[in-house]
Design a protein that fits this description.
flat; six-stranded mixed sheet; alpha/beta; Rossmann fold
Length: 536
């Protein structure tokens, strides 16, 4: 259906893609993986025509219809769900507006005086009615009503404003708009960001049921494993194809690297032996012809490339901070509502020293609100929030923290501003832990990808020593290496933490306690994520 043939993309400051070669067949589900800034989203932009490749060819067989679900959802919050879904039928809506205009003109005409003009309008009306029917205008309402239950909405929900629904439900509306366009190929850019676990499970099942081609950019390891049977890995502007799921890709990539390394080392050893022989007997009366023969053979040898040094960003650590007391936080008799929905009803819980608590629950249940109440950003309607009496120092990472960065500043200047006493070496070493290496530290923030901005926002938060971390979706937009770095840092962290996250793999690595928000109550599970699943 689509084939990239030696595609490159060069900007004035950077070579993003060097030699991209891959294809997708009808109905295939493919994962596009690689670190932040590797050029994954750039390939999507090239596919939908937002950007042109610098060189190479993109072959599209049969002019497939391509739809793109972006990271930033394209939804009008002041429309109803029905209106927003109907907005995907742009051609039909243009014709519907024209029909309405013609009908209004006909109503305002005096027939006795303007019979000729009326005849023209009647002809126009017939023409546009035929076009409306051909485009499926009379089926539009039934198509929308058929997709509502598939997305999880009731008929009553259709007339509610999109803005009244949480991010996960808004994603369903955005996805519904795309599916109604009946694309041949669906491009999904980080579709699980901001989704709760129930919605991620729903999305996995829904996408599995679709018979169209799908290309997924995602850092959700479980999600890629469930859906994809082919992985395209992008590294240093070059593509590699692995015919299997994400787990197969990780295993096979490791084996390939090991095999290449062994073959390279053996060949280098053999070349060294031959060179020693040539140097030793080049001038020998009896063996010079043999030496020359070996030299000719050595020049013809097909050399195995040196294994690529892994572009692994160094891990980081949270700065040292005085130890807190045994009791870190106490929440007593908390009740709180939003509009007409009760989020918490007489809730009590405690955070003790060393606990790393994952807060789980569906979107809209109040996870982010709970963190804001703890951080005194919101006053609870009823109840008390008390930090421990001994030395509690908090660090808070909000979901949208990356969106408030100063776009006109350079990465390195932002860190210097916060730590003016640091040397350039200290700043660059610190930024290296978040994947900012070499010239990337001199990038303007407006030039950064979504993942790079998230890493920078995380770096700024971590600069403040603390013994109580409160993190709201810290892995959103992070690439796999950055997630692994954060996992390791939290596991080594000596303080306590509360983490809201929908990244199942991440939670399974860092949490030693799970609190689930359900029916306005908090249910505690004194164990890790696997223990929680077992109990559920």
């Amino acid at each position: 259906m689509i084939r990239f043939d030696s595609v490159s993309k060069i900007y004035s400051t950077d070579v993003v893609l060097k030699d991209i070669n891959w294809e997708i067949k009808k109905g295939e589900k493919v994962g596009l993986v690689g670190s932040n800034g590797a050029g994954k989203s750039t390939q999507f932009k090239i596919l939908i025509g937002e950007e042109d490749q610098t060189s190479g060819t993109i072959i599209k067989e049969g002019n497939p219809k391509i739809a793109h679900l972006k990271q930033e959802l394209d939804c009008k919050l002041n429309r109803s769900v029905r209106e927003e879904l109907e907005s995907s039928f742009k051609d039909i809506q243009i014709v519907a507006i024209k029909l309405s205009e013609i009908e209004n003109k006909m109503k305002s005409l005096d027939i006795s005086k303007h019979s000729d003009e009326l005849e023209k309008l009647v002809n126009q009306l017939a023409k546009y009615q035929a076009k409306f029917e051909a485009l499926g205008g009379y089926k539009m309402q039934s198509d929308v009503e058929k997709i509502l239950p598939k997305l999880g909405f009731t008929i009553e929900d259709a007339d509610k404003l999109v803005g009244n629904f949480s991010g996960g439900w808004q994603m369903k509306v955005a996805l519904g708009k795309i599916i109604l366009q009946k694309p041949d190929l669906l491009l999904l850019d980080e579709p699980t960001n901001h989704l709760d676990l129930d919605t991620i499970f729903w999305l996995e099942e829904y996408l599995s049921s679709l018979k169209i081609g799908i290309i997924i950019i995602s850092h959700d390891r479980y999600f890629l494993d469930k859906l994809c049977k082919k992985i395209i890995f992008i590294d240093r502007g070059i593509s590699e194809i692995y015919n299997g799921n994400y787990s197969f890709f990780v295993e096979q990539k490791s084996l390939n690297e090991e095999s290449q390394n062994k073959a390279y080392q053996l060949q280098q050893k053999e070349i060294a032996i031959q060179k020693r022989y040539i140097d030793r007997f080049r001038a020998s009366a009896t063996r010079s012809s043999q030496a020359k023969s070996r030299e000719k053979q050595l020049k013809k040898i097909s050399k195995i490339e040196a294994p690529t040094v892994k572009s692994k960003s160094p891990a980081f650590n949270f700065p040292d901070c005085p130890r807190s007391g045994k009791t870190v936080l106490t929440v007593k008799n908390l009740s709180h509502s939003y509009e007409d929905k009760i989020l918490f009803l007489d809730v009590n819980f405690k955070v003790s020293l060393g606990e790393k608590i994952a807060i789980l629950g569906p979107n809209g249940c109040g996870k982010s609100t709970l963190l804001k109440i703890i951080m005194k950003r919101i006053s609870p309607e009823v109840g008390e929030i008390n930090f421990g009496k001994h030395n509690i120092i908090t660090s808070y990472y909000e979901q949208n923290q990356a969106s408030v960065l100063s776009l006109e500043e350079k990465v390195i200047d932002l860190i210097f501003k916060k730590a003016p006493e640091w040397s350039q070496k200290q700043v660059r070493t610190f930024l290296g832990g978040f994947g900012f290496q070499n010239e990337t530290v001199f990038k303007f923030i407006k030039q950064l990808s979504g993942g790079e901005k998230a890493r920078l926002a995380l770096a700024l938060m971590i600069m403040n020593p603390s013994n109580f971390l409160i993190l709201d979706e810290p892995t959103n937009h992070l690439d796999l290496q950055s997630k692994e770095n954060l996992e390791l840092a939290i596991r080594n962290y000596n303080g306590s933490s509360i983490i809201v996250s929908h990244d199942r793999y991440f939670i399974s690595k860092v949490a030693n306690k799970v609190i689930e928000i359900k029916d306005s109550k908090l249910n505690s599970y004194n164990g890790n994520y696997e223990y929680f699943l077992e109990k559920k």
